[in-house]
Amino acid sequence: MRKTVHLCLKSREEVMYRNEADLIMGFNCLALAVLETEARLLAEGFMSTHNHSLLQSDDYRETMRRHRYAYTRYFNAKYSRRGRLAEQDYFYLEVEGLHHTTAALNYVLRQGLHHGVVSTPFAYPHCSANAIFRKELGKDTAQLLMPLGKRYMYMPGEKLIDANKYRMSASGLLLREDIVDTAYVEEIYITPRNFLFQMNRISGERDLDEQKRENTLPPVTVDLIESGVPGFDAKKARIFEQGRVDRNRMGDLELCGIIDQHIVPRLSKEGQTSSIYRIPESQRSAIAEKLWRESCQSRYRPDPGGLLGGKYVSEAQIKRCLCLT
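User: That's the sequence. What structure does it adopt?
Assistant: Structure tokens below.
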């Protein structure tokens, strides 16, 4: 029986997506898993430590298994890593009814907003918010596509799909509007105007009341849907929902970029793959102490010329970006 489910795959101890290329491959792996299992993808959002997806499937477990397996193989090969990636048990929530589904869609599509990365959902590129009502919102423009002969470089393993039906951008990303069932989602939101309202509304008791009247399933809330996500603070999420962004706070991807592009290459042995996973823990701990000292200083006397560029990071961020437990 086909169910509508919300799934969240997360990692507490390490970053799952260290850069833009990882986020692109993460979505491509999910897209292939959805197509292979004949599921219907309604919405998705990827952050450094986790990803959310709302889909309809006869066998969501198989969809998740294929998604996780394909991305883990890619990540482990790229970073000389071994073992399972992310927590063994992923978050699962069954969704049923119009208000319940709308609330789940809203939270998945507003990932960047709730995590304080951007001031509007549409400014965050690693979710499907910009795939909905593209024509009506003026986003249905021609895109530069990846040459057919290079598409395989951005697909997990040696898997290929119909290039005429599923296009790929010049950055290697399968176009979200080709994978997500946008027609179904647009029927739920009814009009572009209502969609814009939902993307900008402030969560409150009205949301809960609508869902409780509809069925007995747990209401979708930011606390529930982000349960167990590393570094997530529900109180801050409600502030971020108003469009407030802390420009002095450095994100995981930016910190991983500093580590992977500037620190790791200097410590890697000649002829060895440059990867944080090949750096001894003692050296990673020393790096963590240096980054933490500069971060503490940045809160009071920002140094634009420093390693962190005057921004600050949390201790938990440093640990997960350096893969320190």
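The chain has a mean pLDDT of 93.
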